[in-house]
DNA sequence: GGATGAACAGTTTGTTCATCG
DNA sequence: CGATGAACAAACTGTTCATCC
């Protein structure tokens, strides 16, 4: 106990539940649904985003998708395994499966609430201003 | 032209029109509508936000409101004047008026488009994932 | 203390660089 | 070059500090 200097965490946490749903949560919601449905890998899901949202001018970048996948992994909601891409070049891919179905469902429901809240907020603004 | 070193701007601009509408635009939309309707001042509009969005758990902070007002001023869409608050303490307030009605309308329509796009995006996610 | 304004700081997310086959 | 991952940096916005009645 000599002159140990205890460095306290000095980060002040911020107000969170504020304006609209965050992109990360939105992306993770789609990732979960797609993983439930089959065994797509990261790049493929990125392109699914492009297709799905072309009409809305929304194009998430690859980092956002990978960060979403990593968070779901860290939270134990999905697991990952390696496979060799069919076809030719012994390209390695990472594919995903749901690890904890209850957690997955819980997370999706939570995102659903934030989605509904956000939609309500935006519709309210249309009603109030137009 | 001796050894003048010309410092070039090295900031790389980013892709903008991406995910959802930004809080700043959302706030400015309400500010414009309220200013059109009367002569409210900053603090009062902040409290109007609290009342309007209590049900959505959304509570913008005062800086966001003032920054929105300053941007509208800088863009010449509104003007500002000083008045003494009725009642007592010779408290000074800043009140606002529309300066350029065409620009105001143009801005609101632009925000409307982004609102609609955002609502579409979120509804799409509900449809796809639930 | 009420209102306004500005500096500062934490978070989110887009861009760039690195690695591996 | 295709896929993945991580470091870095810009943009956004929440918190704190300053000022003026």
Structure explained in plain terms:
Chains A, B: This is Replication termination protein. Chains A, B: One of its GO terms (molecular function) is DNA binding. Chains A, B: It comes from Bacillus salipaludis. The first copy, chain A, contains four helices and two strands; from the N terminus they run H-H-H-E-E-H. Chain A is globular and about 55 Å long. Chain A has 130 residues and is mainly alpha-helical. In chain A, helix 1 packs across helix 3 (62-74). The longest helix of chain A is centred in the last third of the chain and has 29 residues, at 101-129. The first copy, chain A, has one domain: Winged helix-like DNA-binding domain superfamily/Winged helix DNA-binding domain (Arc Repressor Mutant, subunit A), CATH 1.10.10.10. Chain B binds a DNA duplex (21 and 21 nucleotides) through residues 11-16, 18-19, 22-24, 41-43, 60-64, 66-67, 69-70, 85, 89-94.
Calculate the terminal CA-CA distance of chain A, rounded to whole Å.
66 Å
Topology order of chain A in helix (H) and strand (E) letters: HHHEEH
Overall CATH architecture of chain A: Orthogonal Bundle
Classified in CATH, the superfamily of chain A is Winged helix-like DNA-binding domain superfamily/Winged helix DNA-binding domain
Number of strands of chain A: 2
Strand order of the largest sheet of chain A: 1-2
Unreliable segments of 5+ consecutive residues of chain A: 1-7
Domain count of chain A: the total is: 1
What would you call the structural class of chain A?
Answer: mainly alpha
CA radius of gyration of chain A is 19 Å
CATH class of chain A: Mainly Alpha
Average pLDDT taken over every residue of chain A: 87
Largest interface (C-beta under 8 Å): A-B, 36 and 35 residues
Q: According to CATH, what is the topology of chain A?
A: Arc Repressor Mutant, subunit A
